[in-house]
Amino acid sequence: MNLRDQPLKAVAAAAEPRAAVVVAVFAGGTYRALCRGGVDRKGTASVTDRTRFEVGSVTKTFTGLLLADTAARGEVSLTGRIAERLPYAALPRGHGRAITYEHLATHTSGLPRLPPGLLLNGLPSWFANPYRSFTPEMLLPALGRAVVHHPPGTLMRYSNLGVGLLGRLLADGAGTDYGSMLRERVLDPLDLTDTGTAAPAAPDPAYAVGYWHGRRRPPWVIPALPGAGAVRSSAHDLIRFLRAHLHPEDSDTPQPLRIPLAEAVRIRELPAGDEEKSGLAWSVRTLSGATLYFHSGATRGCTAFTGLSPEREVCVVALTNSGVTLRSRFVQSSYLLLRALALGEAK
Length: 347
Prior knowledge:
Blueprint: H1 6-13, E1 21-27, E2 30-36, E3 53-54, H2 59-72, E4 93-94, H3 101-105, H4 118-122, H5 136-145, E5 147-148, H6 160-174, H7 178-187, E6 211-212, E7 215-216, H8 226-229, E8 232-233, H9 235-246, H10 255-264, E9 268-269, E10 277-278, E11 283-287, E12 290-298, E13 303-309, E14 314-320, H11 330-342
Parallel strand pairs: 4-5
Antiparallel strand pairs: 1-2, 1-14, 3-8, 6-7, 9-10, 10-11, 11-12, 12-13, 13-14
Helix pairs in contact: 1-11, 2-6, 2-7, 2-10
């Protein structure tokens, strides 16, 4: 056994035993990946670091970068109020008029976790995909029923609605859809060829099939809120994405994305009483001089973790085709790998 692979194997061991797993790291100037299992449980093909998994809420880090790019182009201001782009009937109640784009990207908008009505609407498909039947046409009417109980910027409360709305506003402002905007402004410039938002129309060995409690799940779709969780990507592409955040000013970074990447990882102090810090969608912690940026994600059939430490030049990606269960320790084990690499406790 290669001793350097032991920390990666510890993450893989935390996944569901029959699940496929890909764990990839960039550390010490080198890239390595551990791959286990097949794209499905029928023996169709083995997973590689180019296999595409549903990454769920890791999508939000792409949406945060898309906001930074849009701001760098002068198309919006981070501190601009979203009320300027919304019809009156779609304004959230309470303190909704004060919400800014940055509030949406840092989970400080005060919006609820989910749009009003989504849970009830999604009950028939709860164990497969509760977002599937919540359509883009439902979003703005639901937003108008949402209540913001506290002034934006005063509390951090995780909101799929908030970041999903951000993706919708950015795409509408650019006159396109979220997937196309992401492709043009982020994916193509960074050469992320395995990454996109479209679900496979038919079984495809390039994509891992999702499972939950051992049962095959249909491809994840989130039509009204793609900016909150629609991305599919490979470990190869995600490491490339993370590495672009390590040193945004490097000459290897596409020039149009240098300022947006730096803005995405600029640390925001969250409201008083919150120990966590934030980038644009990134959770941030500082330990012994190492800054850790990280985000996890899950769909009904897949779980994902991404993290980086710029000072230590470390990146970690962990993907599995098994949805989160109460006993799952996959995300926690992935974070511990990032922490260990950043603190020099693993190589």
